[in-house]
Amino acid sequence: MNAIIVYWSKTGNTEKAAYAIQEGLEEAGADVVIRQLKKAKDAEDIDFFAYDLVCIGFPSYGWRPPSPVEKFLLNKFREYGDTGLVEVGAPRVPGRNVLIFCTYSGPHTGIREATPAVLYAGQFFEHLGFTIVGEWYVIGEFHGWDEGSTRGRLGDIRGRPNNEDLEKLRQDAVQLVKEIKKSEA
């Protein structure tokens, strides 16, 4: 199995999650490429269809992916649409899977602040016929706003994602590879 992890991270929360996922995927035997996205053009050369598993990660910003991620996804969607790979009915493409992971602080309403961002990103891949094999939400400290990290619905989230959170991601990634291999056997 070959996989790519594309992530955008401003404060390091999503980057930590990306590397924990990479560890788990590799432990399970996947060949993994990891790419940090800083600007939409940083990953123009990526062909999602060249991978058995695409992992895309980002923080939730105002209930959406950050602008560079959104622009990246829109550009890729247009590119695939222009080549006829976006079809009416979005027929499934066998062996093409996507994991979306999102870091969030949720200082006001918790996970519900991240859910729309993940669902939004998922639509790009569903329109390509990819199977969404995971939507993972990772609690991350709200850097630069202590009150946002201590008084929200999630309680005190300073220092997260912590080692326990990252270990869970690693283990979940190992399990994900096993599940994908089993479903495609």
TrEMBL record:
State the InterPro entries in the record.
Flavodoxin/NO_synth (IPR008254), Flavodoxin_CS (IPR001226), Flavoprotein-like_sf (IPR029039)
Gene Ontology MF terms? electron transfer activity; FMN binding
Q: Name one Pfam family in it.
A: Flavodoxin_1
Specify the Flavodoxin-like domain's residue ranges: 5-81
In Swiss-Prot or TrEMBL terms, this protein is called Flavodoxin-like domain-containing protein
